[in-house]
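Hi support team,

I'm opening this ticket because the web form for multi-chain structure prediction keeps timing out on my end. I have pasted the exact lines I submitted so you can reproduce it. The total is 258 residues across two entries, so I didn't expect it to be a heavy job. Is there a limit I'm missing, or should I split the entries? Thanks in advance, R.K.
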Amino acid sequence: MAFTLRSVKVPPNSASLEEARSRVFGFFKAACRSIPNIMQIYNLDDVVTTAQLRSAITSEFRKNSHVTNPKVIDMLLFKGMEELGNITEHAKQRHHIIGQYVVGRQGLVQDLGTKDKGMSDFLKSFYRSNYF
Amino acid sequence: MAMRAAILRHIRIPVRSYALEFKPRELNLSGGSLMRFMSSHDEHLTKEEVVERVLSVVKSFPKVDPSAVTTDVHFQKDLGLDSLDNVEIVMALEEEFKLEIPDLEADKIDSTGLAIEYIYNHPMAG
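Hello R.K., no limit was hit. The queue was backed up. Here is the completed structure from your submission:
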């Protein structure tokens, strides 16, 4: 129900890691092939190139490359397909795409730095995130 | 109906029957020099052009060292990429040459040599 363009190609269980792996590559290719369509929908031609979007997709895949359980891989594939379906059917907006896939984490939050002058390093790391 | 026939008669291309004068073995000219007057399928890419474009795609890949790229370099063994990078390079080549490579063939493309060979032999390479 969530995606109109993309039917769920992931049956409940991949039999083995090899099958999950081939599904991952199939999904990667489907995502790369839909890049020109995405750039045309959201008018991203002057913001980013196809190659940059492709590397953004690759790095998203690489974040989960340590997973070995085929069921977890299936679940991640399902979520990925849902995301791709949402993007291609224009359920997202331009700023979503730019914020999530074009600009990295540092680009979104502008750190002015002027109020941090007297602060210790501990406090700076504390404000940035929970884990340091 | 009659007008259609009249128009067709005017734009009809004279059929050349030169084939009848040649012996069969002389027809097989090398380089595929058929004389197909209205075909747009004969502008195949030359091998040098394919090589140049394939190498430029591989060299512009951010993880690849451009000086290590030759016409027969293996992506995973020589350039130190992993399988996901391999698939990404194949997708970049698909985009460059406006092809769609099926999965069976794409899995075999492991090096620049194989990529060049596949694209050169593909009739729809643009």
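A quick check on our side: Chain A touches chain B through 16 residues (CB under 8 Å). Let us know if the file doesn't open in your viewer.
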